[in-house]
Design brief:
- The complex is a heterodimer of chains A (270) and B (940).
- Chain A is built from five helices and 18 strands.
- Chain A has 270 residues and is an alpha+beta fold.
- In chain A, the strands form three sheets. In chain A, strands 1, 2, 3, 4, 5, 6, 7, 10 and 11 form a nine-stranded mixed β-sheet that branches.
- The model of chain A has no long low-confidence stretch (mean pLDDT 91).
- By secondary structure, chain B is mainly beta.
- In chain B, the strands form nine sheets. Chain B has a 28-stranded antiparallel β-sheet that branches. Chain B has a five-stranded mixed β-sheet with strand order 2-8-7-4-5, with no helix packed on it. A four-stranded mixed β-sheet of chain B has the order 1-9-3-6.
């Protein structure tokens, strides 16, 4: 009977001895306010101009250069795919990253640093961009997800960038100044035919055209069929629109981040 | 011939009456008591049992043939006590007469397991601790092999203890029929018995009656591979106690266990208590952990010819799981025990995939024995509780799996038509230099949730009810099975006369399961939303498509809330069976039959946005009538040679899981569900002689009209959906032979050889219908699958074992050499369709790569084990005479072979576009290298 009490005691102690196996985890601290403050030795305007001056399709291997920028365009709505747009006070750049749902790591408003050493600056049909490498067939690779931590250093969040309030004429007359940056264009509306329709056909990505009220200018908006606003209907009215400027040759195009960037609440210009 | 094969009967001390003629010699003096002890389950002799005649102070042990003989026993009434680790003590009172008194053949049922297995309930190592990748598994969930203990039967002992860890399945069969005090343990909806729930209660679950193959069982008709009956009432537990500690490097590191059984007391009561704890902060595979507690309590009351029992057990168990991987991941990690399920969070390893189980069982049973010819047992059992399995869920976010195929280096080669070698080289070097990339990046996932501020509109379907906050991109969700099972089972055994015995019973099982997903951890976010992300763009665009539950659209989900799916399955299974056993002279005959009914229905609690008219509410029952029959004959040629032949025809109802195409989202049923039909024969030859034992068995089984549904996540950008492969009219065949030979080389040394060689394969070309969860059309893509003669993935189909056992008094040691081969990966049926090889040159390597079935490498392992029993009352006075210290140790895979692939399956994703079988290569799991267990137990 001694054993009975002995084993009872032993058992009670082991059953109560729970602490060593607690599988509870503290949430990691929210480090989004941290800025590693890396030394930056190039601004985005300089880098962008370097890319603009290259022949389309050409690349240049970057040296020991570090840039920074605030993310102004991400893939949260699915219209931007495997790339992000960053911007500093001087200009903008797009980074081609081989990963989806980048907004989880690099949401709009996050400051990031990019160590460019070994990456390629490329002129893609007129628009400067940063890619990882080029294949023998001329296609390029984004920075592989396994190497993102090597090249892209996360900074603080959130930051706001207030886009400049521009007219369509401002952009058409000097598109290179605005390439890869977020802008607000005043006094715009969808061109007849591009209004009151879905943003994109369900199966193929679709161009929609915007015009200014005076109908003196026109800019194309490229909408992905994979965007989550694909079935949304383009508004009829007039107003301001935010978007990111890219170049096709020397023609500016507008990339929408989400439909919340479209503020066409005024009556349509006749 | 004495027959005491039931546990209940062993409670009674029974007397033997001897032939009257012998009385004529009655006079004072001495006599010889002899007899033979036979295992009633296996029909094999019981060796190494102690036979004691206390009054005469005489004892001996039974020989290899089960014989014993004690001379110079005083005449008169004598108690003969037969005892051993394998059985409970049995007492025979006999009147010893001068001369040669033969007690005849004594049948005993094995109870205790012998000490060398340390009473372990065998678990299949990787099943016990591995999840297949739920999103892409080629294996049946929970495809654990049959559950047998193998006390008496050397062949089953080899099959389960030696080869079980390498996923050997006897005869390639799947599930078996298991009862716990009459309560059926197998889950009606999956067909599998979650025997891990019995873990840690080894002390009180030792009494198992195993019927292998088609042999007649006493407690049920059985399945094609037999049945197991665990007899665990309080009255049937060995009187005394046991306290033990076990240390191992397997799935758990430590186990403590304590048991006390009162035995049957003078007042007719018996009680039994057992509790244990098994735990490991980290098991053999990194990131796995284990925390299991087990409790058992039982009382019995014997009143005249009635025995009342109440038995309960509960085993709350919480485990961190391992994963199967493609070879590239093992190679990048530099380890065959790489586990992608964990990552560091705040410096601690956190495993995303865990399971927790708490499903207590309580059984009330009653046994009535009007005479020693009849036993009638009735039980009422109830099991309830939850099984949960956790995993990472994500919405509008990147797949967080560290081995997501698009991120691995091989994607640079296999992802498109043009290989990108330099990209492959660079990324491969990065993974090798930075192995943490192969683990979950918890901190990044939390950060994503912290930063993702979003507004959900019209929450709960209320216009203008908008919620803004941190919407989690990543969460931990539990898939929950909340079940209740009520079972009634009544079994009768009656010996009509010396030659004829009749067994039979009726039973009814009602099982209720609610399946749903439950949010377990928001991972730093404030809420999740009950959305479905992947409604196909091919369907008419409708905002309702993204609603998991239209009855409560845009629901905000917080910790503990349900999401994704919620439905109930109700199953009722009734069955009646009977069998006749006839034994005369050299012939034993039996015939058994059963008939039953299985019905089930689905009740959806969500109105799914893609299937609004086929998801909510209860459907009509699916009902199936089943019947079974088997018969056989055993012929004893002489005392040494026996031959037997059995045959059977069995129908089995499909399960709900194999009838509803995708019960999570809709109530669609496969076309023409039907019962499967199994035809089976087995036959064999036994030879027994002093110090020798040989058995050769052959079997052939064909199963027709099987339905198999395989479900997996296909993240091909054009599909992005759970996909259901419904294979109907599948036919499989298993044929093979089993051999066991055992020879006593010298008195304490026995050599045993066991061989099982079989072929289990698909035997026809069934059709496959492919249904996607994200397209609500009912028109499936249907193909013929050319899988005839492909092997089933049922573990090694050839196993060979050679074991030596040395057991002088008080010690034992085992050494075994074991070889296994012909372990085939489970195939992906879609790769054997016309479309899969359309326009591929039949003479090309590509053709071979697509169609061939991989055989996993053969493997050789050496196991050793040993132990000693000490009578500690000799050393420590306070202990009473029965107290024993039992030390034992075992080492598996002594040569530390870490290259044994025990699991292999083809992923169900197939790159139809490029017909590239290497884009989604086979997944594997490796068996443990050197593994050990040591234990110390005090029995009193």
């Amino acid at each position: 009977m001694k054993f009975l009490s002995l084993s009872g005691l032993l058992l009670a102690s082991i059953l109560l001895l729970n602490s060593c196996l607690k599988k509870q985890f503290d949430a990691p601290p929210d480090s989004s306010s941290l800025d590693p403050k890396l030394t930056v030795n190039c601004d985005l305007n300089t880098l962008s101009n370097m890319g603009m001056m290259m022949t389309a399709g050409k690349t240049r291997v970057m040296g020991d250069t570090t840039i920074y920028g605030i993310v102004v365009g991400d893939d949260k709505a699915g219209n931007i795919y495997k790339k992000i747009f960053i911007q500093d006070s001087t200009g903008g750049m797009q980074l081609i990253l081989d990963k989806t749902y980048l907004y989880g790591d690099y949401p709009v408003g996050r400051k990031i640093y990019v160590k460019l050493k070994g990456l390629l600056l490329m002129n893609y049909k007129g628009t400067p961009e940063i890619v990882f490498s080029m294949n023998s067939d001329g296609s390029t690779n984004g920075i592989p997800s396994s190497l993102l931590g090597t090249y892209v250093v996360k900074g603080n969040y959130p930051n706001t960038i207030t886009p400049p309030q521009l007219t369509l004429f401002d952009i058409i007359s000097n598109p290179g100044k605005y390439v890869n940056t977020l802008v607000t264009i005043k006094d715009m509306q969808f061109e007849t035919g591009s209004n009151n329709v879905v943003y994109s056909d369900p199966n193929t990505s679709t161009n929609r055209a915007l015009i200014n009220c005076a109908k003196t200018g026109r800019i194309t908006m490229y909408n992905s069929s994979y965007s989550n606003f694909q079935p949304a209907i383009t508004p009829n009215g007039n107003g301001t629109i935010n978007g990111i400027i890219t170049l096709y040759g020397s023609t500016p195009q507008l990339t929408l981040r989400d439909t919340s960037d479209v503020h066409f609440t005024n009556p349509r210009c006749p | 011939m004495l027959h005491s094969s039931t546990a209940g009967l062993r409670l009674l001390t029974f007397s033997l009456l001897f032939l009257a003629g012998k009385d004529t010699f009655a006079q004072s003096g001495t006599g010889i008591v002899k007899g033979r002890v036979i295992n009633s389950v296996t029909g094999k002799p019981f060796t190494e049992l102690q036979v004691n005649i206390p009054e005469a102070k005489k004892s001996t042990t039974t020989s290899a043939g089960g014989y014993f003989s004690i001379a110079d026993v005083p005449t008169g009434q004598q108690m003969v006590i037969i005892s051993g680790f394998n059985i409970k003590n049995d007492t025979i009172v006999t009147k010893v007469l001068p001369g040669n008194d033969d007690l005849g053949t004594i049948f005993l049922t094995p109870a205790d397991k012998s000490a060398d297995d340390n009473g372990e309930i065998p678990t299949i190592v990787l099943d016990d601790n591995t999840t297949q990748d739920d999103e892409n598994t080629g294996m049946d969930a929970g495809s654990s092999g049959a559950f047998y203990a193998s006390n008496g039967d050397e062949f089953l002992r080899i099959a389960i203890f030696t080869f079980g860890p390498y996923r050997f399945r006897p005869r390639g069969y799947g599930n078996t029929d298991i009862q716990f005090n009459g309560f059926p343990l197998q889950n009606l909806q999956t067909g599998f018995a979650p025997f891990a729930q019995l873990g840690g209660l080894n002390d009180v679950l030792r009494d198992r009656v195993i019927t292998y193959g088609l042999r007649p069982g006493e407690y049920s008709f059985g399945s094609v591979n037999g049945s197991t009956y665990i007899n665990a009432t309080a009255a049937d537990q060995r009187r005394g106690g046991n306290v033990s500690y076990y240390n191992s490097n397997r799935s758990y590191r430590n186990r403590v266990m304590a048991t006390y059984n009162s035995g049957l007391m003078k007042n007719g009561w018996a009680y039994s208590l057992s509790a244990s704890r098994r735990w490991a902060d980290e098991g053999y595979i990194p990131g796995t952990y284990y925390d299991g507690k087990s409790f058992y309590g039982a009382v019995s009351k014997v009143y005249k010819k009635q025995q009342f029992n109440l038995t309960g057990l509960a085993a709350p168990t919480y485990r961190g799981l391992a994963a199967t991987e493609i070879q590239e991941a093992f190679d990048l990690a530099g380890s065959h025990y790489y586990n992608e399920n964990w990552g560091y969070q705040n410096g601690k390893k956190r495993n995303a995939r865990s399971d927790s189980s708490f499903q207590p069982i309580i059984v009330a049973s009653h046994t009535y024995r009007p005479s020693d010819k009849t036993r009638w047992t009735t039980s009422l059992g109830y099991k309830y509780g939850k099984y949960k399995r956790s995993g990472l869920d994500f919405y509008n976010a990147a797949n967080p799996s560290p081995t997501y195929y698009r991120n691995l280096p091989s994607y640079a080669i296999q992802g498109g038509l043009t290989p990108r070698q330099s990209l492959y080289d660079i990324t491969k070097a990065e993974y090798e230099a930075n192995p943490d990339l192969l683990q979950i990046q918890w901190d990044d996932l939390y950060m994503s949730n912290y930063m993702n501020t979003a507004t959900v509109t019209n929450v709960n379907g209320v216009a203008g009810n908008n919620v803004t906050g941190k919407q989690s991109m990543y969460v931990i969700g539990n898939r929950v099975d909340d079940m209740r099972t009520l079972s009634f089972n009544s079994i009768i055994t009656h010996a009509l006369n010396e030659k004829l015995t009749v067994d039979g019973g009726v039973n009814a099982i009602s099982q209720y399961d609610e399946y749903y997903k439950e949010l377990a951890d928001l991972m730093g976010g404030e809420f999740f939303v009950n959305y479905y992300q992947f409604a196909s763009q091919a369907v008419v665009n409708d905002p309702n498509n993204s609603q998991n539950n239209l009855n409560n659209p845009n629901a905000i989900i917080k910790t503990g809330d349900r999401y994704s799916y919620d439905y109930i399955l109700r199953t009722l299974k009734t069955n009646a069976w009977g069998q006749l056993l006839y034994s005369y002279n050299r012939i034993d005959l039996f015939a058994a039959a059963a008939a039953g009914n299985t019905s089930f229905s689905r009740e959806g609690l969500y109105r799914n946005g893609l299937f609004p008219n086929n998801s909510f509410g209860r459907t009509a029952d699916q009902t199936f009538f089943t019947y079974k029959a088997k018969a056989g004959a055993t012929f004893r040629i002489d005392n040494h040679h026996t031959v037997f032949a059995y045959g059977g025809y069995i129908t089995d109802a499909p399960t709900a899981n194999n009838t509803y195409i995708a019960p999570g989202t809709r109530d669609f049923v496969i076309s023409n569900p039907q019962v499967s039909k199994t035809q089976t024969i087995e036959g064999g030859y036994n030879f027994k002689a002093k110090g020798m034992n040989f058995r050769l068995t052959g079997y052939a089984t064909e199963v027709n009209d099987l339905t198999l549904i395989k479900r997996f996540w296909n993240d091909d950008p054009d599909i992005q959906s759970f996909v259901n492969y419904v294979m109907q009219n599948v036919s499989t065949r298993s044929v093979g032979v089993e051999m066991l030979a055992s020879v006593k080389i010298i008195s304490d040394l026995t050599a045993t050889a066991g061989i099982a060689v079989g072929e289990s394969y698909y035997n026809n070309r069934p059709t496959i219908s492919i249904y996607q969860d994200n397209i609500p059309s009912m028109v499936p893509v249907t193909h013929t699958v050319y899988i005839k003669d492909y092997y089933l993935g049922v573990g090694p189909q050839s196993v060979y074992s050679m074991a030596f056992r040395y057991s002088p008094r008080g010690y034992w040691a085992n050494l075994s050499f074991n070889y296994m081969d012909r372990n085939y990966v489970e195939i992906n049926p879609e790769r054997r369709t016309e479309l899969a090889v359309d326009l591929v040159d039949p003479t090309s390597q590509k053709w071979t790569d697509i169609l061939s079935q991989e055989k996993l490498p053969s493997a050789f392992v050496v196991n050793v084990a040993g132990g000693k029993t000490f009578d500690i009352s000799k050393y420590f006075k306070p202990f009473d005479r029965r107290t024993q210290l039992v030390l034992s140790a075992n080492i598996g895979n002594l040569l530390n072979n870490q290259n044994i692939k025990s699991i292999g399956y083809e992923q169900l994703r197939y790159d139809l576009g490029n017909q590239n079988p290497n884009k989604f290569p086979n997944k594997y799991g490796y068996a443990y290298g050197l593994n050990y267990g040591i234990s110390a137990a005090i029995r009193f």
